[in-house]
Amino acid sequence: MRPTPADWRLACRQLLAKLFAELAYEGVITPTHTGGGDYELPVPGGPHYRFRATRGAYGHWRIAPESLTPATDPLEFLTLAHDSLLGMAGDTTGHLLRELTATLSADVHLSSRALSAADLADLDYAELEGHQTGHPWLVANKGRLGFSATDATRYAPEARTAHRLPWLAAHREIAAYRAVPALADPDTLYRTELDAPVRAAFAETVRDAGRDPDDYLWLPVHPWQWDETISTLFAPQLAEGLLLPLPADDDLRLPQQSIRTLLNVSRPRRRTVKLPLSVLNTLVWRGLPTERTLAAPAVTGWIHHVRDNDPFLREDTRVVLLGETASVTVRHPYYDRLPGVPYQYRELLGCIWREPVGGYLDGGERARTLAALLQTDPQGRALTAELVHRSALPARVWLGHLMEALLPPLLHFLYRYGTVFSPHGENVIVVFDEQDVPVRLAVKDFVDDVNLSATPLPEHADLPPDVREVLLTEPADFLPQFIHSGLFVGVFRYLAPLCAEQLGVPEREFWSLVRETVLRHQRRFPELKPRYELFDLLTPRIGRLCLNRNRLHADGYRDRPGRPHAVVDGSVPNPLHLP
Q1: Looking at the record, which segments are called Disordered (predicted)?
Q2: What is the distance of C-alpha 386 from the center of its chain?
Q3: 61-74 pLDDT, tens per residue?
Q4: What average pLDDT does the segment 134-143 reach?
Q5: How far is CA 149 from CA 12, 109, 563, in A?
Q6: Mean pLDDT confidence for 132-153
């Protein structure tokens, strides 16, 4: 549907407000305070932008889009300010204009079909994913370089279109399978994921090609990846019969916010599949690294072992850890042997099967990603406000339940095991009871987003070698940064002002709730006091992670042999430091 001029102008105004807010937070621009809540940002050779803003925890900026004047076009601002004010190279600016335009197009599409907060609250986990507006911190959060406009209408989450997936048979000469012990035989996986007639059709297709089905592994492929990448870059293997196209299976799968992860909506108890997609989005190419894909089930086994042998995690928090229980990787015979090759060429073909959250829910429970709590409807009402209303609890009590659901499992893994997840809005899933009260936590994406303390700990003595080899390690004093940046800065920085505005809970009180939850957990385990100092969440300041600077300055759009790391530039006050 073609956007109206009014729709486009509104999306531009909202995106420019976000652009100013996030660049000011990261120290890329420095608006001048002109009194009260008013600010000004002059652009050399361009307009003097004026707007109203409030400041919050971690140095957060919240800019009122309706106050922006005299111009509201983020593309025009970028064109005028890229070198003089932002210090960006011309080539980076050109690519960023493309990403911002794609993001605006997606924003207009979302706003034209937006639901009320009440309707959002009624959606199930899979449906709600297609109504979310994307990463709250990254400005170009729906760039999806590689997608055409037609691709976006088919495969983007906001398209809300489920697809049958084509499959491939990959010869074991170039393919490898890994799984948790219960799925050690790939046929066990296929029996749970594919109906008997589909399995028979796959085997018959392989035999018709003059091959032995036992020599092949099966895996689904994203339709876009098949057309854009597999059919071209794997053309020799297709010609030689090392890869054999198989029919699509019967199940419909719906993309999540990450685009490459698809939920089975025909059989919700079947596993979610995570597939490589050679699209550049939110800083990285969305492929599947071979080594990490192979190691995913082993990492799941260790994380589950920790949970299952810890009574606090297993019984008190009942944390759900969505296991990456099986994987297939397919090596490219040339790219995988080429030193210095851009990393996206080493992440082309594979699959990770992940447990669905629905299989862990009790009767009456429902799941929503943490990011969903930041959603607002066209009237400005937040989904969080609707859930608090439905719970019939005072807002402060409801938020206390939210903190108790989220923080204790994350803190316990950090303090007891020197292990930290990256608890951003999509990796963290909140489980609610039948009254929409938060009751517990679910976490996903282990192999990509679990980090260990580089300081040796006794709890790591039994770490399997393959897990130790693949998990990233960080200095002990840096591990709390993952909770700060992923959860507190990446989600709570936006949730706190929403709660102040719509629930009547002042920001200072919000952060006091967070701090008190941390301190209460520490009091429960006094024997871990040295760990509270080793992994200190309550320091006066924390390093300022700068996600947008990665694109603007650190990496641009250059090819590189490994995935980029977020820039840390300066520091910001820590709202947990004082009650």
Answers
A1: 558-579
A2: 24
A3: 999 999 999 999 99
A4: 97
A5: 19, 12, 26
A6: 97
Can you tell me the distance from the alpha carbon of 552 to that of 93, in angstroms, rounded to the nearest whole number? 8
Tally of CA atoms within 13 A in the half-sphere of 296 that contains its CB: 32
* Mean pLDDT of all residues in 250-275: 97
Question: At the topology level of CATH, where does 365-538 sit?
Answer: Transferase(Phosphotransferase); domain 1 (1.10.510)
Return the pLDDT at 3: 82
* Count of C-beta atoms within a 10 Å radius of residue 440: 24
- As given in the structure block, the two tokens for residue 78 are 């970028």
Q: Are 505 and 499 in contact (CB under 8 A)?
A: yes
- Please tell me the distance from the alpha carbon of residue 71 to that of residue 53, in angstroms, as a whole number: 16
The answer to whether the CB of 424 falls within 8 A of the CB of 372 is: no
Place of tokens 């397919």: 330
Arithmetic mean of pLDDT, 333-338:
95
Rounded Cα–Cα distance for residues 419 and 440 (Å): 19
Residues near 311 by beta carbon (within 8 Å), at least 6 away in sequence = none
Q: Which ranges in the chain are annotated with CATH 3.30.310.280?
A: 5-159
Q: Are 297 and 327 in contact (CB under 8 A)?
A: yes
525: CB partners within 8 A, 6+ apart: 412, 415, 416
pLDDT for 127:
97
**In angstroms, rounded to a whole number, what is the distance separating the alpha carbons of residues 371 and 374?**
6
DSSP-H helix ranges across 333-464: 383-391, 395-417, 446-449
**Other C-beta atoms lying within 10 Å of the C-beta of residue 563:** 15
**Residue 345 and residue 285 in contact, taking contact as beta carbons nearer than 8 Å:** no
Backbone phi, psi, residue 326, to 5°: -155, 155
Whether the predicted model's global pTM rises above the 0.85 cut: yes
Taking residues 213-241, report their average pLDDT: 98
In whole numbers, what is the pLDDT of the chain averaged over residues? 97
User: CA-CA distance, 518 to 151, in Å (whole number)?
Assistant: 44
pLDDT at 565: 86
462's CB contacts (< 8 A; 6+ apart) are none
Asked if pLDDT for residue 579 goes beyond 90, the answer is: no
- Report helix, strand or coil for 495: helix
Q: What is the mean pLDDT of residues 390-406?
A: 99
Right CATH for 5-159 from 3.30.390.50, 3.40.50.2000, 3.30.310.280, 1.10.3720.10 = 3.30.310.280
Residues of the chain with CATH 1.10.510.40: 365-538
Q: Which amino acid is at 343?
A: Y
Q: What is the mean pLDDT of residues 378-384?
A: 97
Percent of the chain with pLDDT over 70: 100
Burial 111-148 (b: 16+ CB within 10 A, else e): eeebbebeebbebebbebbbbbbbbbbbbbbbbbebbe
User: What pLDDT is recorded for position 277?
Assistant: 98
